[in-house]
Amino acid sequence: MKQYETVFIATPVLSEAQMKEAVAKYTKLITDNGGEIVYQEDWGLKQLAYPIQHKTSGFYYLIEFKAEPEFVATLETQYHRDERILRYLTVALDKHAVAYAEHRRQTRAAKAAAPKPAAEPVEAAPAVAEPAAESENTENAEA
User: Fold this and answer.
1) Which of 61, 69, 82, 125 is the most exposed place for a label (fewest CB within 10 A)?
2) Which domains does the chain have, with CATH numbers?
3) Residue 33: what pLDDT?
4) How far apart are CA 141 and CA 123, in angstroms?
5) What is the per-residue pLDDT across 7-66, written as a single tens digit (0 to 9) for each?
6) Taking the model in full, what pTM does it have?
């Protein structure tokens, strides 16, 4: 089995429940066809670089999975038939991309697990009286 990464953009008019349903549909499709979900990440609602089907934003979702090469055509056919999906892209990951993706996941997990430093109280600065406004010379020099 090869490792793949797929990103799809869903229409922004979906409710959160409908978006979860769409994600569940594709993760189930992958697992039902002998694939294995390695990682998935919701990138949320983002602005599109250009309008797609008169939409200027979309829900981005990433799924990293292992599957047989023949399955990718089936997955992309399902994306193409689903009117909720604006765009999709599936790429095969080579060994360097797999290592990078694993490193990226570990880094994100470490950042999420690291305790955030407690905010230190800020001491109030002493009040400073404003200097008296100096009288300005309003003469206009004509050349």
Assistant:
1) 125
2) 2-113 (3.30.70.60)
3) 92
4) 48
5) 999 999 988 899 999 999 999 999 999 999 999 999 999 999 999 999 999 999 999 999
6) 0.72
